[in-house]
Amino acid sequence: MWWSLKSFPLLFRMSSIFSKIVKGEIPSYKIAETNDYYAFLDINPLAKGHTLVIPKKEVDYLFDLKDDEYAGLQLFAKKVALAIKEVIPCTRIGVAVIGLEVPHAHIHLVPINGMGDLNFANPKLIIDAAEMKLISENIAKAFQNYL
Ligand code: AMP
Fold this sequence. Notes:
By secondary structure, the chain is of the alpha+beta class.
């Protein structure tokens, strides 16, 4: 048989919500995309410009990525962070990895002005669709400077 019992769960595993975003099956406020990576605004942001960067390859835990995949993701995140900083007035772009909610590796990039701004227990901002779209478009434009 071409498949074994061991591969059974893989055959029927559903795509993660982030894989669906990559495939365009559900919408996102896209910022940047390469062959291997994708960046989009977090839908429940801690700050304006709060962005998620992900590998297109569906791996749950960030540190299970292969070395080259991990390094590529970090370099991609750096470019995205520089673009966010150009658009959103802030002191720094904070970086966080949580991964307790969505089982698809991702890095949070959050514009911050102080340590407390990176507290994920803080209330999330409500930003209307028009502003989210504008923010993503502006960061996407700034990203072009880092290609
Ligand atoms: P965590 O896995 O704990 O790092 O959290 C997952 C993050 O993904 C949260 O900040 C969510 O707001 C965000 N998120 C979940 N679904 C979406 C979505 N469809 N579009 C954008 N961000 C999302």
